[in-house]
Each structure stands twice: as C-alpha cells, then as structure tokens.
Specification:
It is built from 15 helices and nine strands. The protein has 373 residues and is of the alpha/beta class. It has a single domain, classed as TIM Barrel.
C-alpha cells in the first residue's frame, strides 16, 4: 500500500452501525443478502418487487442489515446495480441498514463509488454500509467490458491502493499537494462546515472475501470483515482465523468483527424447502458449466437427469445450505454460529419463487422470535 494501514483506513466512527444487535432469541444479529434472483416465468420487475417486500419485512422484523450483491451478465440475477436498488429500498424502509454485499471495486473508479454511496448516505442518513470485494462478480469477458481493459489480474492486485483512494474520497482528506486534493466526492463531507464537518458520517467500509486475501487486509486495516461462507465453506475457518490473528485496532474497531454469509431457506414443510433450494443448485450447475440462465422451476429441477459429476456437485452444494422447517433452519444456523464464532449472520436464499424467499425470511424471523411487524 502507498501509506500505512492506519492512515489508509480513514476516520471511521465507532458506533456507526458496524456492530449489530442480536434481537429476539437470536444468538447474534441476523441480516439479509439479496441476489435478486429471477426465476423461470418471472421478470426482473417481479424479482425486484419481491426484494422490496423482503427489505420491508427485514426492516419491520428487526434484521440488522439488508445488502445487495453486484453481479453481471447473469440472467437469473438482477442485482447488477446495487446503488440503484439500494436507493429504491431506502424509500421503502426506515430502520434496517442498507448496503452492498458487495460492490466489486476493481470494476469501478473509486470516485464513482464514493459519489454513489455518498448519495445513498444523503438519502438514508446513518444507515448505509459500503461492502467491497475484489472479484469481478462475473466472467472474464464481462469484466473486461466493465473495466475497458484486459488487465483483470492487475485490477485485483491494485485493490489495496484502490481501497485507500476510495476511503480518501469518502473522508475528503487527500493531503495537500496530492493530485486529487481539490477533487471532492459530492454528496460528502465537503458540504459540511466546522463542527458539522467534524461529525460528518460516511458509510462504514467493510471488506468482503472468499479466501485469505481480504481477511488479512481487513485485519491489518482494522475493518469489519464479511466472509462468503455460502459458496466457500471450506475456507471459512482459515479465513476467520487469519482475520482475527492479523487484526489491528483502528479508529473503526477496537476488536475484530466478522460477519458470514449463510445460505438458508425455511418453508412451511421440509419438502417445499428442498424443492426450492434444488432450483438454486441446478442454477449453479449451469453457471459453473458456462450456461447461466434464469433460475429453473422446482418441477424442472426435480426432473433434471443429473450426471454423476453434477450430482456430486449438487450434494456438496446443498450440504452447505441450511434448509427445511423453521426449527430445523434455526438449529442449523445456531450450530454454524457456534462452529465459526461469527459475530453476525447474513442470510441468503437462492431460490426460484419470489414468494418463497419472502416467506422464508418471515419464518426465520418467527423462529427467532424477532419483533412482530
């Protein structure tokens, strides 16, 4: 990095919404990660409408965060523009924290992200999170189209420098003489004066990862860390250990704070839960073999003639998805918290039917006795 970790991490504020509060009988705070799945027979408009209902439910039932993930060129995922979706959700919620899970920083100029999330902070003051990842969130060709360059590896390797630059824009504190010293991300701290500027809040930065790189960087900078357990379960414990071992107290956090993404879907009966998660598994089979598409129907997934290799993948995938009745899901999630020591769980459900995603969140809220809507 071009400057020390303490200098680069900026002037974050303790108590700025990083640490969630466990509600009801949940052992840790519960949050939601939304990929805005589009199933066969549905449109992106249907999926976004379901996400709006789900965010309103999360807001009313005491979930801590509602994050949207950035993906590109995937017909079954309508979350290519997290900032746009979050602006919409801000108008339909009043309490839940809204954020990116995450923005793929190498795809964007840091100034653009600072402007987008400064705007979100102005729309929903005090409840915006900025989660950042270094993966492309898509295939190589699409990443090249997004970045206008074929040097994709260079973008990932430059992530620490991009991160430092973004935080400087968010804090509006480039040193005098820096080539960007006269550039301001607006809306942002530049619009506050005197005491108001000193107290100006900006979205807290989180680092996201599915391996050790971001875990170590988050630890060194004293930032909160979100790990993608839902698709990289084998790396969860090593990454969390690395984060905790390398953590240095900062202006943002006194001690480590680790959130993990967990695939979970509850239904009124076990069979329906399995039917829904099987659609997500088949969708992943197709994605991994270069055939991305809409999330298949439960009927199509049940009738699919899985090859032995595909069946092994599906069994492995579903082994990392907590699904079934609400009580079974709660039991599985509680065990995951105990096994990992996670400070917060962020639940995601890759399913065909929009209503199933909304119903699952409602059932999980009931299972944990979260506040009634």
């Amino acid at each position: 990095m071009s400057r020390s970790g303490e200098d680069a991490q900026g002037s974050g504020h303790r108590g700025s919404g990083i640490r969630g509060e466990a509600r009801g009988s949940a052992p840790v705070p519960l949050s939601v990660l939304d990929l805005v799945n589009v199933g066969e027979g549905y449109t992106a408009s249907d999926a976004l409408a379901a996400s709006t209902r789900q965010a309103a439910l999360a807001d009313a039932r005491g979930f801590t965060r509602y994050w949207v993930a950035e993906h590109h060129s995937m017909p079954g995922v309508a979350s290519s523009s997290p900032a746009v979706i979050l602006a919409h959700l801000a108008a339909h919620t009043s309490r839940v924290r809204l954020g990116s899970g995450g923005v793929m920083l190498p795809n964007h100029a840091p100034l653009v992200i600072a402007e987008q999330f400064g705007t979100l902070e102005a729309l929903a003051p005090g409840r915006v999170d900025l989660g950042l990842g270094r993966a492309p969130g898509t295939d190589g060709a699409t990443a090249a189209a997004l970045r206008r360059t074929e040097r994709l590896r260079e973008g990932a390797e430059d992530f620490p420098q991009q991160l430092a630059e973004l935080i400087r824009f968010l804090d509006d504190d480039f040193p005098q003489g820096h080539r960007y010293a006269r550039i301001h991300a607006v809306p942002g701290p530049v619009q506050a004066q005197g005491e108001a500027r000193a107290e100006a809040h900006r979205p807290p930065v989180w680092l996201l990862g599915s391996s050790g790189f971001s875990a170590q960087l988050a630890g060194q900078l004293g930032l909160p860390f979100a790990f993608a357990h839902h698709f990289s379960a084998a790396n969860t414990l090593p990454a969390l250990d690395l984060y905790r071992e390398t953590f240095r107290p900062s202006a943002v956090l006194d001690e480590p704070y680790a959130l993990i993404g967990a695939a979970a879907l509850a239904a009124d009966d076990e069979k329906e839960a399995y039917r829904q998660v099987l659609t997500g598994a088949l969708s992943m089979v197709r994605l991994r073999t270069g055939r991305p598409g809409l999330i298949p129907t439960p009927e199509e997934a049940e009738a699919h003639p899985f090859s032995p290799v595909e069946r092994d993948f599906v069994d492995s995938w579903l082994g990392n998805v907590t699904h079934g009745t609400p009580d079974a899901v709660r039991e599985g999630l509680d065990a995951l918290v105990k096994r990992t020591g996670a400070d917060e769980l962020m639940l995601t459900a890759n399913a065909h039917t929009p209503e199933a995603r909304v119903r699952s969140l409602e059932l999980i809220a009931d299972a944990y006795a979260l506040p009634a809507a």
